[in-house]
Amino acid sequence: xxxxxxxxxxxxxxxxxxxxxxxxxxxxxxxxxxxxxxxxxxxxxxxxxxxxxxxxxxxxxxxxxxxxxxxxxxxxxxxxxxxxxxxxxxxxxxxxxxxxxxxxxxxxxxxxxxxxxxxxxxxxxxxxxxxxxxxxxxxxxxxxxxxxxxxxxxxxxxxxxxxxxxxxxxxxxxxxxxxxxxxxxxxxxxxxxxxxxxxxxxxxxxxxxxxxxxxxxxxxxxxxxxxxxxxxxxxxxxxxxxxxxxxxxxxxxxxxxxxxxxxxxxxxxxxxxxxxxxxxxxxxxxxxxxxxxxxxxxxxxxxxxxxxxx
Length: 310
Known about the structure:
Distance between the termini: 13 Å
Structural class: mainly alpha
Number of strands: 0
Strand content: under 5%
């Protein structure tokens, strides 16, 4: 068998196994490390099979997120086991210290909220939360089509934020504020109690479509530390700033809006946001140091691609 044919066959096998493993993990009782390793190999398999193009870049990013989603969701494959491990109290304690006795979420909701009603600015906050599902990936797409020379670094930084952040969901599974409120840990003898405003408005806005929509997007409800909503948005804002002032200003405006939304709506603690910010800034600081290793990996992939096409 020619070497190029063998390489392509091996890459196709890796791609097929990596795509199947997350889907079949429960049926085959696959261990999480096996699933994660198989899924994480798929972008490299695609990079070996296809020459460099925008289509390949999009495909590799999609496969990277496929692997991330598998890692994100797997702790919730056994909800009872996850609930037995989840940490609920420590972020409440820290946020009460930040809020001088009352968590910032409770202070904001009590000062500004009106139960049962949603003003325009509150709807804007809810939509800013929903828009997050497109913001990091939209940033990568913008760089790919408008500033392609910056794409490798931009994509690596944003998806590294996802990948490193998900480690926290395995190591220290931490509940969000709304879950702590359900457990009675937000009670302080005052009213109103904490509201999960995104769900309240989601039920009003999407009506019967809300339950299936949330079922798709809420694959692990006990994954709050660090806030990857905030971390990936901060990284994306840095990436946008590298492309120009206007794009950077838009990015940071979104980050500020989302940060307020996450706390006000009861989705994250200030503590979660601080950890997310630290993660994003740590990746930004480390980027120059790891760039040589990333370039070596890229050259290795290019050699494999060349051999596969020989």
